[in-house]
Amino acid sequence: MFDKYKAQGWWPIITEVVSTEKETSTKDQSKWICKYGLAAPRNQEEAFEIAIGAILTQNTSWKNVEKALINLKSSGNLSIEKISSMPLKNLENLIKPSGFYKQKALRLKEFSKFVLSFGSMRNFIEKIDRETLLKQKGIGHETADSILLYACKQKQFVADAYTKRIFSRIGLIKKDTKYEEVKKSFEENIPKNLEIYNEYHALIVEHAKQFCNKKPACEQCPLSKLCKKMI
DNA sequence: AACCAGGACGTGA
DNA sequence: TCACGTCATGGT
Q1: How far is the CA of A26 from the C1' of B4 (A)?
Q2: Is A216's CB less than 7 Å from nucleic acid strand B?
Q3: CB contact at 8 A, A45 and A16
Q4: Is the shortest CB-to-strand distance from A10 to strand C under 7 Å?
Q5: Strand C lies under 7 A from the Cβ of residue A99
Q6: Is the CB of A96 under 7 A from strand C?
Q7: Distance between CA A185 and CA A159 in Å, rounded?
Q8: Measured from the CB, is A107 under 7 Å from any atom of strand C?
């Protein structure tokens, strides 16, 4: 997969692009895009954004999550303090494009307050463990592992639905294998290395999007030869 | 116009 | 434990 897709450079981060065109310089023409390959998180703000993105992307396409994140960021509300203190209705409106916006607004607020209970994002990153994180409402296995791996740099393999779909089709696991078991088998069979955990999951997502989606494109798939195609 | 998207939770069996 | 309904917007 790496040969095919190259390094993914997760996690993606929302960044402001300032236009340098002179003709329209009367207005401050800036736009926001989602950028990969930044070696994020480079600071606590990005770590927090990653956690927020992990919650927003629950059963939702990343494209819709981008819209929600840009709404938050461009309005200056993508911070622990703002999300935990702003009116619920405002938050709901900002994240509406990501879907399930009422429950997600609550989850974002609860999570932000949870981080605040550690004192700061830095302390949260230092102290948080998987069991404690899983007790938070709205944070299940995958979201927890995404936050721990990509925001906190802990060696936790993210075994999402894509992972199960690809590797059950290939024939390496059964399709009814539970999350914790899939996670364990990966952690036992690939090098215990942060970069590899990071990149491996990102490649799985890319592969699932390009070829191994619900209706797979097996003809063009780079893994076609080694796959048992157990659709 | 159905169907799907980087899930999680509450419920009843 | 486990299958099933619910939550919701935007793209194909």
Answers
A1: 43
A2: no
A3: no
A4: no
A5: yes
A6: yes
A7: 10
A8: no
Distance separating alpha carbons of residues A191 and A187, to the nearest angstrom: 8
Q: Give nearest nucleotide to A97 (CA–C1').
A: C9
**pLDDT surpassing 90 at residue A25:** no
Backbone angles phi, psi at A113, to 5 degrees: -65, -35
Q: What is the CA radius of gyration of chain A?
A: 19
What's the pTM? 0.96
pLDDT tier, A149 (very low <50, low <70, confident <90, very high otherwise):
very high
Whole-number Å distance, CA A98 to C1' B2? Answer: 20
By the 10 Å C-beta count (0-12 exposed, 13-18 middle, 19+ buried), A183 is classed as buried
Task: Name the average pLDDT for chain A.
Answer: 95
Residue type at A55? I
Amino acid A29 CA to nucleotide B7 C1' distance, rounded Å: 37
Sign (positive/negative) of CA torsion A38, A92, A112, A199? negative
The residue type of A40 is A
**Which bases of chain B are contacted by protein, using any atom under 7 A from a CB?**
3-10
Give which of A58, A74, A57, A59 is closest to A14, Cα–Cα: A74
DSSP A45: H
